[in-house]
Amino acid sequence: MSTTLEQVEKTAQLSKNNQLSLMIFQVQFPYDDYQPPYYGINVFKVREVLEARLFDISPIPDANPLVEGMIELRGEYLPVIDLPKWMGLEMTEEQREKSIIIVADFSRNYVGLRVSHIHGVEEKNWTDIHPAGNYKVNVNTNQIVNHTYLDNSETLCFILDIEKLLIEAMPSMAQKIFSSAKSIDKEAHELSPQMYAKTILFAEDSQSIQKYMGMVFDQLNLKHIGFDNGRLLLDYIQGLDTLDDVAMVFTDLEMPVASGHTVIKELKEDPRTRTLPIVVHTSMTSDNNSREVLAMGADYFIGKVDTDLILETVCKVDQARFSAGV
């Protein structure tokens, strides 16, 4: 088996067991006695790691200051985001020469993230990933979605809200996302009375994406409740006396406490919730990931912030459940 296939298989097995691999990095270089904070990104989103000094960055006219420019990688062009600047930091030219660019995939949007140093890769259980809180170290909590600890230590490792970063760094992307939600034509998406009477439940740890999903469902006049992680969603469902008022479940995959894989597994294993439609809404959009969650029992798989596909999926669920009298 090739190294790439081995990595894919390993990632799939980790996901099944509510685990993940985190690539740990720092955004600043250490100095004097100061050790900069550590951050993590799911290895599944990382396509490769580049030495920044080997790539020329071409400026983009009128780009957001957070976007340094474009680099060419094997004939493809991708934007490089100045992660330190987003966090209120500046790198010297000498530090930029020593820095690293992480090439990451978010819903098939490839971006480069400039960081100072790769610490390594650590395997975690999603129960070890905790929602953001108040920290004694100097970090911007508005940029953090979760945290964990480095292996065998009490050293914090923060997980950034990358969706929020992309929306702030690329305003045109944000405008497209939110305008697509605002411009939904209710008349063109007439649903059954049963769908309007029921509630859509969704789990999503990014506040930016929660806001977007709420806008989509509001535009359709659909009732909805959002949860910050998979365990909160599962606990809510388990606490219901009946599921008669639940239309469907949307779930992200990357979430603290309980991942989307755990949501799928627990809902499909419980006879009471087995037939509840599950829609995976994620930025981890590789074909392998799609096959994996569908094999686990998810009914639909869509990339994040694809308004047309969300609408299409809601209509499909409505047609399958209520037109068929389920």
Can you lay out the helices and strands and say which pair or pack?
Blueprint: H1 3-16, E1 19-26, E2 38-42, E3 46-51, E4 67-73, E5 76-81, H2 83-86, H3 93-98, E6 100-106, E7 109-115, E8 117-125, E9 130-131, E10 144-149, E11 156-160, H4 162-169, H5 171-182, H6 193-197, E12 199-203, H7 207-219, E13 223-227, H8 230-238, E14 246-251, H9 260-269, E15 278-282, H10 287-296, E16 300-303, H11 307-323
Parallel strand pairs: 2-11, 5-7, 12-13, 12-14, 14-15, 15-16
Antiparallel strand pairs: 1-2, 1-8, 3-6, 4-5, 6-7, 9-10, 10-11
Helix pairs in contact: 4-5, 5-7, 8-9
Question: What do you see in this structure?
Answer:
Strand 6 and strand 7 (109-115) form a beta hairpin. This protein is an alpha/beta fold and 326 residues long. Helix 4 packs across helix 5. The strands form three sheets. The protein has a six-stranded mixed sheet with strand order 8-1-2-11-10-9, covered by helices on one side. The chain contains eleven helices and 16 strands. It starts with a helix and ends with a helix.
Features:
6-stranded mixed sheet, 5-stranded mixed sheet, 11 helices, single chain, 326 residues, alpha/beta, 33% helix
Roughly what is the average pLDDT, rounded to an integer?
A: 87
Tally the helices: what do you get?
11
Placed side by side, the strands forming the largest sheet appear as 8-1-2-11-10-9
Overall 3D shape: globular
Helix percentage: 25-40%
Extract low-pLDDT stretches.
Answer: 1-5
Please give the largest β-sheet: 6 strands, mixed
Question: Termini separation (Å)?
Answer: 44 Å
Which structural class do the helices and strands define? Answer: alpha/beta
How much of the sequence is in beta strands? 25-35%
Q: Radius of gyration from the CA trace? A: 21 Å
What's the helix-strand series? HEEEEEHHEEEEEEHHHEHEHEHEHEH
Number of strands: 16
